[in-house]
Amino acid sequence: MHELAITQSMLSLALEYAEQASAQRITRINLVVGEIAGIVDESVQFYFDLISQGTLAEGALLSFRKLPARFRCSACGQEFPLRDGNWICPACQGLGGQVISGREFTMESIEVE
Amino acid sequence: MKVSVVKDILGANEQIALENRRLFDEKGIFVLNVMAAPGAGKTSLIERTIEALRDWLRIGAMDGDVASSIDADRLARLGIPAVQINTGGACHLDANMVRRGLSSLSLEDIDLLFLENVGNLICPTGFELGEHLKVMISSTPEGDDKPYKYPGMFSAVDVLLLNKIDLMPLLDFDMDTFRRGVEALNPKVAFFPVSCKTGEGVQAWVEWLLAQRVRRLQVWHSALEAER
Fold first, then answer.
1. ipTM score assigned to the predicted complex
2. Is the pLDDT of residue A4 over 90?
3. pLDDT tens figures, B146-185
4. Contact A109 B94 (CB under 8 A)
5. Which of A55, A79, B139, B141 could bridge to B163 as Cys pair (CB 3.0-4.6 Å)?
6. How large is the C-alpha radius of gyration of chain A?
């Protein structure tokens, strides 16, 4: 549950770009969240609503684009997605493998007025 | 109006972690980030390692906990400089907390530094601290299914210690199930079964750790040579 720390980083990044663009208000923040990044959208939204009060970002809409997790099996080399929360290869039933994607947490853009 | 950002939100942490790492390299301090669930034996393992190495290396420690200075007090009793960091509720150490903690340590007098993370199997993996090695401690009472339930941490570490092996006769812990999960997630991980209570297996871990430090000394040495 480190969403508060993460939300603070996210808010300061958004404010930095809004100020550079001499914006009056941030209306929307576009985020990309990997499926296994360990970030809970609702929790980020909850903290954001609290800590953005009185800033340019107050009332901004948070948009979360989910990026699916993909693995490469360390036993047979097959690429596969997360299935029912398990890191299990559908081809050989091997566990785990190299994480190709899914750990991202990035800010793509902000929309400002 | 749309303003493009395209930035890693944890980039600020990564940046400070890089700065910490540069400082450690410059001062010649070999740094371990020790992660585990609460009660797995992080402080006990650090105590055992200090006892084994304190005649040869100057050791320091930074202890992250939500509250109390119990861990730093335990390590300070062994005569090493130990700083307690209270995270004030945060579930992990981050690079900035470590940077602040470093100001309370005399870096010139430390060869090996333990960063004892907050007891947690999830969050610490997301935050680089600037360490050279990620160390994980699992313990037999936690169960043999932990690699399957917390793949993120098991796949991210350089070395895994399984503590409390002296309790195995009392538990339904299946070593093969545990090892299969670990090897599938992290085939390159170094693995040491230990008991911090009896001392069993600690010697093998300590020898491995010393070998890793020698490798790091060689890297630092080559970097210095290259600069000339």
1. 0.83
2. no
3. 999 999 899 999 999 999 999 999 999 999 999 999 998 8
4. no
5. B139
6. 17
Predicted TM-score (pTM) of the model is 0.87
How many residues are given for chain A?
113
What residues in chain B have their Cβ under 8 A from chain A's Cβ atoms?
1-10, 12-13, 90-92, 94, 122-123, 126-127, 147-148, 151-152, 155, 180-181, 184-187
Q: Is B211 exposed, middle or buried (0-12, 13-18, 19+ CB in 10 A)?
A: exposed
**Nearest-CA distance A41 → chain B (Å):** 14
**Nearest-neighbour CA in chain B from A94: distance (Å):** 7
Mutate to test the interface with B, among A36, A48, A95, A112 (most CBs of B within 10 A): A95
Interface contact A17-B180, CB threshold 8 A: no
pLDDT digits (tens, 9 = 90+) for A20-45: 999 999 999 999 999 988 888 999 99
